[in-house]
What does this fold into?
Amino acid sequence: MNGFDFECIIFDLDGTLIDSEPLCAQAYLDTIPELNMTRDEVVLDFRGQKFADLVQRIQTKYRLNLPTGYEKTYRRQVAVLMDAHLRSFPHVASVLSKISVDMCIGSNAPLVKIRHSLALTHLASFFGDKIFSAYEINAWKPSPAVFLHAAEKMGYAPSQCIVIEDSQVGLQAAQAAGMRSLQFAPDTKTSNEKSFHHYDHLIEKLAHI
It folds into this structure.
């Protein structure tokens, strides 16, 4: 990351460190048969957004009344798919092992999902308890709150942090937090990077950081 002066890296998780977005998309398709979209379309349209907002959009668009316990059904299916298929992106462990500044995770996902994902991909040891969830503070990206919360807990000012994100809402959150950002776009089919205008630099491989 030549040209960037920072002391703390805040990583998004889903779609940035781990290749989970297709699995999350598949879980929607598996649990809502009426959802008339391809998996890639779900990834593009839903990436990084607040779960409750997505459910409301789906119900409105398809005139559905999903069961009160739908979130548990969805989370259970995500866990099943992750147990079978979740992988980190190539070279993630190697990249993380070479980072000499502080780093943490700032995610829209629940803490239990973050911990499960890190355990499955053998990345937990790189972060320990330095994981921060929007569910802890009841504020989701594109609000900057989770990144500001992470920076405060890590002991850094926003100007000392850089965010690595794959989603539009995450990049907007970083900008609103006063942090520089890198957009991670490994798959042009599902990154739609031409519509993103909130990042300082675009990378296609984490090894490029």
User: Anything to note?
Assistant: Residues 78 and 91 are 24 Å apart (CA to CA). The beta strands are 8-11, 102-107, 131-133, 161-165, 180-184, 201-203. The mean pLDDT is 91. Residues 70-85 form the longest helix (16 residues).
